[in-house]
């Protein structure tokens, strides 16, 4: 980095953390279902089919949220989209807490998914657009950090609420209104993305924000690079995502998004109780395991933030996919042979740590940076819609597969998928660390 090209690190990290509070909402809704499921099975008399649908209904809302976010982000800006996401989530969290019927619960969890889906797309994209290339990977990984903090805090709250009677699940969900309100207030302080401002013709505002982010030299160089990348750009449409020039990036983005879910780790997050119940663990032990998972997830996400701009994206993805493939086989054998819960816990936590340092943050980093400026909104939307579609399929099918094959059976399948993912990353994913978004776009066009 040139001495002339210095950055206002405190400002950049500050706005990245505020934006990444949307990730906390993602983590909250991701984790709350794990603690609530033992109560919801009784409350709504769930069969494996309906348990899978209840868990996956969030993902269906996320798909709608992503589609909405792509259009809102490109038409009105990244900031309004983040505010809408926070508002939807706050209202739906309170509504879920007062649910009296299964239908009402599903409808409101679907609505919560709309907020989560919007945040899951807009937060990494916003952070990528305000971050200098040298620290972009770390900053986008802040979003994953807030996701895992959301998971850990929610698991802890679930653990302590579990002894508060049959309606404990209502408090578990209702408390989601608190981080939503904090996020909504925080977003009001965010500047708009300078890249979006330039795309919408508000160049003077963009210059002001770029000068807050870095030195005059950095601001001028970034302004010229973005200006060049936007030459000839037109109104975004989903048809542009499949044009020949950008198709390689879109294929990689969609495949990585789907792989991050089909790798199977979210079964561990969402069905911790089912997995440990299969080896004889009681409810207290099941909820304790969710807390242990949250702690390990947080520690290794911090490690990922430290390494993603040093080791790079590709090596971490290769390590994660191959490592999970091996660990799943070991975990499946342990579950199949009813190893003690403590031993099963070790293998589960090893899988969580492998995922947390690799596929979890790095997939979001890559999705936020591999698409050209002129289609980043809609292309990110397509990739993340694919991610949430894959998540729905994963969590919907697990209870059914577990009933047919046993809790261990699906992990053999996930091991094969992870090995296929390893081969795909090795063949198709190129390193992106240290390059500006515009340099990555130039490389895409040249190839």
Automatic annotation (TrEMBL):
Gene Ontology CC: plasma membrane
Protein name, per record: MFS transporter, sugar porter (SP) family
One of the Pfam families matching this protein, by short name: Sugar_tr
Organism: Mucilaginibacter pineti
A molecular-function term among this protein's GO annotations: transmembrane transporter activity
Listed Gene3D superfamilies: MFS general substrate transporter like domains
UniProt KW keywords: Cell membrane, Membrane, Sugar transport, Transmembrane, Transmembrane helix, Transport
PANTHER family per UniProt: PROTON MYO-INOSITOL COTRANSPORTER
């Amino acid at each position: 980095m040139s001495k002339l090209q210095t950055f206002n690190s405190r400002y950049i990290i500050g706005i990245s953390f505020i934006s990444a509070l949307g990730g906390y909402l993602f983590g909250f809704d991701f984790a709350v279902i794990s603690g609530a499921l033992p109560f919801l099975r009784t409350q709504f008399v769930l069969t494996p089919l309906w348990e899978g649908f209840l868990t996956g209904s969030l993902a269906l809302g996320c798909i709608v949220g992503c589609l909405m976010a792509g259009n809102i982000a490109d038409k009105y800006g990244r900031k309004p989209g983040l505010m809408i996401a926070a508002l939807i989530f706050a209202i739906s969290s309170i509504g879920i807490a007062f649910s009296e019927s299964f239908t009402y619960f599903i409808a409101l969890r679907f609505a919560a998914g709309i907020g989560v889906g919007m945040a899951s797309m807009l937060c990494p994209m916003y952070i990528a657009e305000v971050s200098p290339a040298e620290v972009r990977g770390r900053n986008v990984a802040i979003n994953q950090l807030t996701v895992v903090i959301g998971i850990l805090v929610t698991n802890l709250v679930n653990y302590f609420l579990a002894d508060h009677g049959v309606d404990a699940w209502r408090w578990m969900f209702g408390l989601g209104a608190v981080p939503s309100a904090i996020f909504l207030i925080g977003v009001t302080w965010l500047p708009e993305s300078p890249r979006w401002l330039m795309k919408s013709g508000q160049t003077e505002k963009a210059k002001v924000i770029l000068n807050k982010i870095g030195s005059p030299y950095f601001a001028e160089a970034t302004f010229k690079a973005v200006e060049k990348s936007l030459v000839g750009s037109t109104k975004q449409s989903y048809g542009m995502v499949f044009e020949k020039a950008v198709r390689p990036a879109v294929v990689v983005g969609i495949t990585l998004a789907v792989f991050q879910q089909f790798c199977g780790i979210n079964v561990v997050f969402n069905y911790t109780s089912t997995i440990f119940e299969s080896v004889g663990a009681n409810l207290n032990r099941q909820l304790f395991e969710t807390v242990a998972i949250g702690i390990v997830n947080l520690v290794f996400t911090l490690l990922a933030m430290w390494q993603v701009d040093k080791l790079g994206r590709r090596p971490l993805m290769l390590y994660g996919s191959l490592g999970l493939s091996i660990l799943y086989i070991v975990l499946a054998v342990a579950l199949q042979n009813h190893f003690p819960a403590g031993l099963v816990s070790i293998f589960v936590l090893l899988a969580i740590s492998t995922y947390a340092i690799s596929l979890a943050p790095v997939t979001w980093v890559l999705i936020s940076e591999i698409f050209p400026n002129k289609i980043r909104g809609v292309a990110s939307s397509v990739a993340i819609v694919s991610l949430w579609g894959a998540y729905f399929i994963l969590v919907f099918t697990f209870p059914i597969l577990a009933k047919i094959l046993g809790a261990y059976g699906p992990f053999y399948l996930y091991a094969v998928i992870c090995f296929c993912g390893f081969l795909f990353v090795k063949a198709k994913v190129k390193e992106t660390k240290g390059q500006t978004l515009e340099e990555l776009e130039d490389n895409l066009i040249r190839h």
